[in-house]
Amino acid sequence: MTAGAATHRVRRVPRVLSIAGSDPSGGAGIQADLKSIAAVGGYGMSAITALTAQNTRGVRGVHVPPAEFLAAQLDAISDDIAIDAVKVGMLANAEVITVVADWLRRTSVPIVVLDPVMVATSGDRLLDPDAELALRDLLPLADLITPNLLELAVLAGAVADAHPVAPATTWAEAIAQAEAVSAATGARVLAKGGHLPGGDAPDALVHAASAGVVEFTGERIATTATHGTGCSLSSAVATLQAELGDWEAAVGEARRWLRESLRHGEALEVGGGHGPVSHFAGLWSRGGLRTAPMPAEIADEWWGGIADVRAAIDDLPFIRALADGTLEREPFLAYLAQDALYLRDYARVLAEASRLAPDAAGQAFWADSAHGSLVGELELHTRWLTGDADATGVALPTEADATSAALVFAAEPDAATTAYLDHLLATGARGDYAVLAAAVLPCFWIYVDLGERLAAGEFGQRALDPEHPYASWLETYADPAFAVATREAIELVTREAAAATPERREAMRRAFHASARHELAFFAAPLA
Ligand SMILES: Nc1ncnc2c1ncn2[C@@H]1O[C@H](COP(=O)(O)OP(=O)(O)OP(=O)(O)O)[C@@H](O)[C@H]1O
Ligand SMILES: Cc1ncc(COP(=O)(O)O)c(N)n1
Fold it and tell me: Whose CA is nearest to atom 2 of ligand 2?
C-alpha cells in the first residue's frame, strides 16, 4: 500500500535569491540571508554585490567587484532556475543599483523584497551617499521595502525630490514617512522600529494603495545580538511570502521566527561586539540535530533487537514438536483455544489502530487486518477444532470433535494470553497510534517468519509432509496473502517510526519489543 504518497501533499520549497554583500563573520549580508531562508523553509541562492571585511565590532573595508560580474552572476541564475522570490540587500554604489534594476526589469521575479541597507548596526556606511538617489529608481521594482528608521528618512527624502527628511523620532512619524514612500513607489513598506528608544520593538506594514497599516508589536528583547536582524528579517519575509502568499502572515511569522532567534543569539558567543542572531535555534530545539533513520533501517534494527527472543521461540519444545509432528493433540488444542481467545481481542486492538490511524490508507489496512483476524483465523480454528476434513485434510475422530469444540469455546485465557492482551489493550487505551501500531506488529512478523521457515524445511522436512498431522495449520502460517499483509504492516509502522521524534520512536521500539516477548511466552505456554 503506498499510503503516504497519496495523502500527504509535498511542500514546494521556495527558491529564494539574495542579492547582497558578504559578511565574513556570518551574521549579516548573504550569510545571514542564506541561513534565514533555510531556517524558514526555503532554498537559498546568492549573488554577491560586494565583499566586506567586517566582524561583530565593525566594518574594516568594502571591496566592490566589477558590476558586470554581478550581472553575470544574476544571469547565470535566472537563465537556469525559476526564482520564487528575491531579497535585495547591500548594493554598495549606483552602478550596482543599475545592474540590479536592469536585471529585475528583465526577469519579472514574482516577489521582490528590498532591504535598503545604508549603514551597518555598527554605524559604518554600506552605500555610497551619492547612490541614495539612485535607489529611487529601484524602489518601484520592489513589492516590499524594509527600511529602519534612518533608511526610511533617506527614502522619504528621495521620493520627495531630494528634500532632506529628518529621521522619525516617534512611531507615528515613522508610519507617516512609510506612507509617503509607499504612495510614491506603489510598494508596501515595512517600517522597522528596532532603533526606536523604549521598551517596544514595533514594526508596521504600510500599503498606501489600500490605505492599510498593520502594526506588529512586541517587547524589545534585551540582547546585544542584533547584528544582521534587518538582513535576516527581509530574507525570511521574502521566503515566507513565496510560501504563504500573504504579506501580513509572512511578516508575522518572520517576526516570530526572528524574535526566537534573537533570544538565543548571545548563547552562540560569537564576537565581542553586536553578535549575530541564532538563525536555527528554534529548529535545533524542535527538530533536533540528528538524522532520522530510514524505514528499512528501523525494520532491521527492531528485528535484530529481538533476535534473542526469536531464537528462544525457535528452541521451544512446542515449536520443535509442532514442526516434527510429535506434538500431542492436547497441547495443540490448548494452543488453538488460547489463540482463538487472543485473536478476538487482537481484532479489537487492530480496530483501535484503525480508529487512531492518521490517514485513510492506515485506517483501511488495520480495519482489514481486524476483519481478517476475526473471520479468517477464527473460522479456521473452529473448523480445526470441529475436525472439518475439507478444511484440514485430516479427519478427526467424532468424539474428539466435541471435546475440541468444547475446549475452544470454554477455555479461559491463561496467564500468557492475559498478559499479552493486557499489554496490547493498555497500549491501545493510551491512544498513541504509532506506539500501538508498533505493538501489534510482532504478531504479524514473527508468525510469517516462522511460517516461511517451517515451509522452507528449516525445522526439518517433516513440516513439509502432506501427511503431517497439523499440515493445514502449517499451511496457514505460510499463506502468501498473510506475508503480503505483513510486509504492508512493517512498511506502515516503520514509516511512522521514521517520521517520529526520537522519543516517540523509542516508545515504539519498546512496545514492539514487549510484544515480541509476549509472543515467546505465548508459544511457550502450551508445554509449560
Ligand atoms: N532588541 C530587539 N528586540 C526585538 N526585536 C528587535 C530587536 N532589535 C531589532 N528587532 C527587530 O528586528 C528587525 C530589524 O529591525 P531594525 O530596526 O533593527 O532593522 P535594521 O536596522 O535594518 O537591522 P540592523 O539593526 O540589523 O541593522 C525588526 O523586526 C525589529 O523589530
Ligand atoms: C554585508 C552586509 N550587509 C548588510 C549589513 C547590515 O546588516 P544589518 O543592518 O542587518 O545589521 C551588514 N552589516 N553587512
Answer: 29
